[in-house]
């Protein structure tokens, strides 16, 4: 008999499972607290549950952790875990400690089907979506392992922020993502605020609209170009969700979002998207002055400029630091908030765009990427700044 993994349930799902077995809703609340707040997987130790329920759980359920393939710690304190998700697939999860927060970067898929030109995960291909339990198992392990390692007092959290920025496109796994988000936010589980949970997407406009209605959390959008031609080449999803649709969905999202801005991620690629003219194009896009979007449609935003982490298959290079600074100045002079992301964990391949894991590809990604490069070559542009 296959055991039911209780990590697959949010509170409503757990309450429904309990109700089917004649148990009241408060039992689901107790279970959620034991599993997520206390990190308990042994039903026998859940002492405030009736013995009959504990026996019922032991015979039909489990809290299924993910096997750990490896764990690496960077010189800067960043920790990366490689988890086995079966059938030759492994996913990566990264913890980034800072003075005022601890951020966990979670994966949502084994691989990624989007195939962004600058991302090593996409170059590994795609195997499958993760289940809700597999998404939450990353958080469950990291939170309780770090609490023990850091000798935290009862009630102290190791993880204060969660970002869905690991392997995969989260919104392509919407059915599993949604209950996972609800557990992260639930006061009986991790109790994170909506401002401290971020979903990052390559730009699936219609599902951004759906997330706004179902579970609005902080939103980050992988933008990387301010015109459709270049974005088609860098982020293939743009051909189905062009900038006009994406920017409109972003503006609508703000009506219910916990923050009053959208974060736009912009990976700085040498000679591709890093000229002052392209910075001005980005200013025009978010201020509703671009031919790529609805006139006057302004999207309040923060722009996060990301140093590219090179890998051989990409054929791309990192923008020189002085060019990144010049790009940022154009944005800031136009009144936009622009930051340059500090690279963390690059000595253990845990930085942005480096998560690759191990993926049994089902998509023939190398053939598709090669064909795409032949159809839509990326032409270097004049930078306006000497490297």
Derived structural class: alpha/beta
Order of helices and strands: EHHHEEEEEEHEHEHEHEHHEHEHEH
Query: Looking across the biggest beta sheet, what order are the strands in?
Result: 3-4-5-6-9-10-11-12-13-14
Major beta-sheet overview: 10 strands, mixed
Please report which band the strand proportion falls in: under 5%, 5-15%, 15-25%, 25-35%, 35-45% or over 45%: 15-25%
Name given to the CATH architecture of the largest domain: Alpha-Beta Barrel
As for the CATH topology of the largest domain, it is TIM Barrel
CATH class identity of the largest domain: Alpha Beta
Q: What are the segments in which pLDDT stays under 50 over at least 5 consecutive residues?
A: 382-387
Give the number of helices. Answer: 12
| Termini separation | 63 Å
How much is the average pLDDT? 91
The gyration radius over C-alpha positions equals: 22 Å
Provide the CATH superfamily of the largest domain.
Aldolase class I
Report helical residue fraction.
Answer: 25-40%
């Amino acid at each position: 008999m296959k055991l039911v993994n209780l990590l697959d349930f949010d509170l409503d799902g757990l309450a429904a499972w309990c109700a089917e077995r004649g148990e009241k809703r408060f039992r689901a609340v107790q279970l959620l607290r034991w599993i997520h707040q206390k990190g308990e997987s042994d039903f026998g130790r859940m002492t405030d549950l009736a013995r009959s329920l504990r026996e019922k759980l032991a015979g039909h359920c489990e809290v299924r952790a993910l096997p750990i393939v490896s764990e690496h710690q960077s010189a800067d304190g960043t920790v990366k875990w490689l988890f086995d998700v079966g059938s030759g697939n492994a996913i990566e999860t990264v913890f980034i400690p800072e003075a005022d927060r601890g951020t966990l970067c979670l994966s949502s898929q084994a691989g990624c089907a989007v195939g962004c030109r600058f991302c090593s995960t996409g170059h590994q291909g795609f195997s499958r979506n993760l289940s809700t339990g597999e998404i939450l198992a990353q958080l469950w392990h990291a939170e309780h392992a770090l609490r023990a390692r850091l000798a935290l007092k009862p009630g102290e959290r190791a993880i204060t922020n969660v970002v869905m920025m690991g392997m995969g496109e989260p919104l392509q796994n919407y059915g599993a993502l949604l209950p996972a988000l609800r557990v992260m936010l639930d006061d009986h589980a991790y109790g994170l605020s909506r401002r401290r949970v971020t979903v990052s997407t390559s730009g699936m406009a219609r599902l951004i609209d759906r997330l706004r209605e179902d579970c609005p959390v902080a939103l980050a959008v992988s933008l990387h170009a301010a015109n459709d031609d270049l974005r088609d080449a860098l982020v293939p999803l743009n051909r189905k969700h062009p900038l006009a649709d994406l920017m409109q969905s972003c503006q609508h999202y703000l009506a219910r979002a916990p923050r009053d801005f959208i974060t736009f991620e912009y990976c700085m690629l040498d000679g591709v998207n890093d000229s002052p003219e392209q910075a001005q194009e980005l200013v025009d896009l978010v201020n509703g002055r671009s031919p790529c979007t609805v006139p006057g449609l302004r999207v309040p935003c923060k722009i996060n400029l990301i140093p590219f982490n090179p890998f051989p298959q990409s054929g791309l290079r990192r923008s020189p630091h002085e060019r990144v600074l010049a790009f940022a100045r154009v944005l800031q002079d136009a009144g936009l908030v622009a930051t340059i992301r500090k690279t963390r964990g690059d000595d253990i391949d845990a930085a942005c765009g480096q998560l690759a894991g191990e993926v049994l590809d089902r998509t023939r990604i190398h053939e598709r990427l090669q064909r795409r490069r032949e159809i839509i070559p990326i032409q270097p542009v004049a930078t306006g700044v000497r490297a």
